[in-house]
Design brief:
Pfam families: Amidase (PF01425). Helix content is about 40%, strand content about 15%. It has helices at about 5-15, 20-40, 45-65, 105-110, 155-160, 180-185, 220-230, 260-265, 270-285, 305-320, 335-350, 350-365, 370-395, 415-420, 425-430, 460-470, and strands at about 40-45, 75, 115-120, 165-170, 185-190, 210-215, 255-260, 290-295, 395-400, 435-440, 450-455. The chain has one domain (about 1-475): Alpha-Beta Complex (Amidase signature (AS) enzymes). By secondary structure, the protein is of the alpha/beta class. The structure holds asparagine. Asparagine binds near residues 172, 175 and 176.
């Protein structure tokens, strides 16, 4: 079977009768069986269920009653609740836990006839940029298995890159969908904060977390967003705004005003090949008649400290619920309640998660609260206001997704160097605006380069239309 680039390609073969959902599932299962032992993208595969779902969708296709995602075989990051299925956030802390309910986004996918093939590896509790903090070991980049796929949705990106499923659903707090998509040469999309309900998403930093698709085409990202987005009685933070038919609005306008952050493109740490790819894109956009201008953004240096103060603070609170009492891991050698808490958390959480809980607890402590947490909230406001202002002046802001291409497993030992790799993705997260990473080329070693585009809040339709013109076909 050939490698499908989008659901519309799958659908034309389904309509022509040259394939069936059952055959698609067998194809992806075969790819998983062959590649997953090396790539470690899936933590668990549900073959029998996927086959049963496929047969049911085939029947609905024959009857003309199939949903908009019929034929789409997807994997879900191990932070999304799916009733009766293990949910571990790639952590020992949730060892043996099975979800009691299905989250809203996943339910909407199922209702639209997507077929879920398994759950995917990620950084532990989505904390990381390389998939190396997973309790289950790193997922590996399919282009070079000595390299990381990025993170935290690393397994989800590799699964799409290596054709183990057509699309994945990840989550993005500070780049977790966009950065691995860039490292793997696929499309990663973080919608506006609140666009997709988080009911059933394991919380990391609640004022940042968003669910987002990883796909081979922008058209599929649009379709998945359309299905998952919208108000939800189970999540009061989900926006009440109507959901446009994103997938029907993918024709870009002829003229856009595009800004690029000069300090980002000229920053010291930026890999010269990424810089060259960026400049080539900017030239080509100018050549197409768009207005392309350098903009000043004075807060680049404050982005990482602000993000890591606020998200660790929120994580220290969110992860307080894992105490060894109600569910998940319980230390076998505890002697009383206090030692049960301490030992379960010390043994159940990995080093990076513990580091963030400690950092977050510190910045929230009474004597440091104003110096760190309150100050970071103020800086976030400045970053948001400036970003919003730029996104009123320009239709889009473009910048690299990452400062480097996929690095080697084990290369970044210092946590701060790992944090610094998020420099370009956290802006959209701090500002709550939508951002997409699309593959725009590769470096000399053949490793993919991602271009990131941000738009104003709730301007997903314009963003997706513009992005669809940037990339015809994914690199991988
Ligand atoms: N979760 C994310 O969006 C990734 C980011 N690198 C973090 O570790 O916080």
């Amino acid at each position: 079977m050939k490698r499908f680039q989008s659901l519309s390609e799958v659908r034309s073969e389904l309509t022509a009768g040259t394939t069936s959902c059952r055959q698609l599932v067998e194809y992806y299962l075969g790819n998983i069986e062959r590649q997953n032992p090396t790539l470690n993208a899936f933590l668990e595969v549900w073959p029998d269920e996927a086959r049963a779902q496929a047969d049911a969708v085939d029947a609905r296709l024959a009857a003309g009653t199939a949903g908009p995602l019929a034929g789409m075989v997807i994997g879900i990051k191990d932070v999304l609740a799916y009733a009766g299925h293990s949910l571990q956030s790639s952590s020992l802390m949730l060892d043996g836990f099975k979800s009691l309910y299905t989250g809203t986004a996943v339910q909407r996918l199922l209702d639209a006839d997507a077929i879920i093939i398994g759950r995917q590896n990620c950084d532990e509790f989505a904390m990381g940029g390389s998939n190396e903090t997973s309790y289950f070991g790193p997922a590996r980049n399919a282009l070079d298995s000595s390299r990381v796929p990025g993170g935290s949705s690393g397994g989800s990106a590799v699964a799409v890159q290596a054709d183990m499923c057509l699309a994945s659903i990840g989550s993005d707090t500070g780049g977790s969908v966009r950065q691995p998509a860039a490292f793997c040469g696929v499309v990663g999309f973080k919608p506006t904060y609140s666009r997709i309900s988080r009911y059933g998403l394991v919380a990391f930093a609640s004022s940042f977390d968003q669910i987002g698709p990883i796909t081979r085409s922008v058209a599929d990202a649009a379709l998945l967003l359309e299905v998952m987005a919208g108000p939800d009685g189970m999540d009061s933070t989900a926006s009440q705004r109507e959901v446009p038919a994103y997938s029907q609005q993918l024709t870009p306008a002829a003229h856009y005003r595009i800004g690029y952050i000069a300090d980002a493109v000229n920053s010291e740490g930026l890999n010269p090949e990424i810089k060259a790819a960026m400049e080539a894109q900017l030239d080509s956009l100018r050549g197409q008649g768009h207005v392309v201008e350098a903009v000043e953004f004075p807060y680049l240096d404050f982005m990482i400290p602000t993000y890591y103060i606020l998200t660790t603070a929120e994580a220290s609170s969110n992860l307080g619920r894992f105490d060894g009492v109600k569910y998940g891991y319980r230390a076998p050698d505890a002697t009383d309640l206090e030692s049960l808490y301490k030992k379960s958390r010390a043994q159940g959480f990995g080093a990076e998660v513990q580091r963030r809980i400690l950092l977050g607890t510190f910045v929230l402590s009474a004597s440091y609260y104003d110096a760190y947490y309150t100050k970071a909230q103020r800086v976030r406001r400045l970053i948001k206001e400036k970003t919003d202002e730029l996104l009123r002046q320009y239709d889009f802001l473009v910048l690299p997704t990452t400062p480097t291409t996929a690095f080697k497993i084990g290369e970044k030992q210092d946590p701060v160097s790992m944090y610094l790799a998020d420099i370009f993705t956290v802006q959209a997260s701090l500002a709550g605006v939508p951002a997409i990473s699309v593959p725009v080329g590769e470096d000399a070693a053949g490793l993919p380069i991602g271009l990131q585009v941000m738009a104003g809040a709730f301007r997903e339709a314009e963003l997706l239309a513009f992005a669809s013109a940037l990339t015809e076909e994914v690199v991988a």
